[in-house]
Amino acid sequence: MSAEPGAVDLLLPAARGVRVRTPVGAPAPARARVGLFLAGVLVLAASVAAGTRIGTADVGWADLGRVFGARLGLGTEPLPPLLDSLVWDLRLPRVLMAALVGASLAVCGTVLQAVTRNALADPYLIGVSSGASAGAVTVAVLPLSGLGAGTLGITGGALAGALLSFGLLLALLRRTGLDSVRIVLTGVVVGQLFTALTSLVLMASADADTTRALTHWLLGSMAPARWDAVAVCAIVTPLGLAAAWLCANALDGLAFGADTAASLGIGVRRTRMLLLVVTAVLTSVAVATVGAIGFVGLIVPHGVRFLSGPLHRVLLPHAALAGAVFLVWTDSLARVAFAPREIPVGVITALLGVPLFLLVLRRRGEL
């Protein structure tokens, strides 16, 4: 295999003694990676604290300290009930949900770009988010088999829709293979199909108030986030990240193609299906909670690769941190940009993501 400029040697444990080259930049030194990770953790913690303060009602740093101190039983004087509820029941769950969803979507984008060998792959562009939205809306509007419109019912509907949309994508690509251009084109078609099905369900079965609420939610909004939904994401997101990280060496191999990965002893079909299910679960939980938010999984992994290098055991945790920080600040901007009116966070990510998407296309010579 010919090496590209700047390639680095990578020894895969799945194939001891076989050394391959990964074509995307060079990994940062170990000390720099540790420092970068710790810096990311500190930035995320500071972003969560700052994001909890941001809003139309003024909340100071001292107020935050009093809320946490009182809730943790540290003996500090509690805030008035209304302000305490604003911080603890509304803002903090919202900010934590933004961090968890941002991490999930960034990890999904990183995994899909390796599995499909397509730098433009993310759950939104290949139709998985649209499928999850269709499934969630169907359960919310037409409670099926007694599932109801609770958190678990909507999450189950979103998972079913995500798996169905991705299964349809794979079926359509069965003859042509996972060609990078065809994946995006076919994903757009699948996404439009499930978007149309979502609109059909809304128009046929929902009343005006439900249609308005679900349409706003489908654009991506952290406003519905509450502690029960945060708890679900707090369980699923680390498990999904752990599953992807355990497959990091396989992802490095898959980045070279199925044939190369198989020659290195990687079970390509089994690993690929496992990773696709992981991304479908992460996407469905995110969509069921906050709606479809695009471009996070596209732009974050590309930015992180310049700092951490291409190896997935390093790239995945850094992408999760960067995605969390990105969505926390994006949601904060969505809250205050047109205050007191709030705009969906998916609108902000699209406005930021479209020019960056065009930049990626230009760098790849496809524009």
Describe this structure in words.
- The protein is built from 14 helices and two strands; from the N terminus they run E-E-H-H-H-H-H-H-H-H-H-H-H-H-H-H.
- A hairpin with a 7-residue loop joins strand 1 and strand 2.
- A two-stranded antiparallel ribbon has the order 1-2.
- It is mainly α.
Number of separate strands: 2
Helix-strand sequence = EEHHHHHHHHHHHHHH
Largest sheet: 2 strands, antiparallel
The percent of residues in helical segments reads 55-70%
Helix segment tally: 14
Task: Present the secondary structure layout.
Elements (H helix, E strand, L loop, with lengths): L7 E4 L7 E4 L7 H24 L7 H11 L9 H35 L12 H14 L9 H22 L7 H26 L2 H11 L8 H20 L1 H7 L3 H6 L4 H23 L5 H13 L3 H25 L8 H19 L4
Antiparallel strand pairs: 1-2
Helix pairs in contact: 1-3, 1-13, 3-8, 3-11, 3-12, 3-13, 4-5, 4-6, 4-11, 5-6, 5-11, 8-11, 8-13, 12-13, 13-14
Properties at a glance:
two-stranded antiparallel ribbon, 14 helices, 2% strand, mainly alpha, 367 residues, 2 strands
Quick structural gist:
With about 375 residues, the chain is mainly alpha-helical. The protein is built from 14 helices and two strands, in the order E-E-H-H-H-H-H-H-H-H-H-H-H-H-H-H. It starts with 7 loop residues before the first strand and ends with a helix.
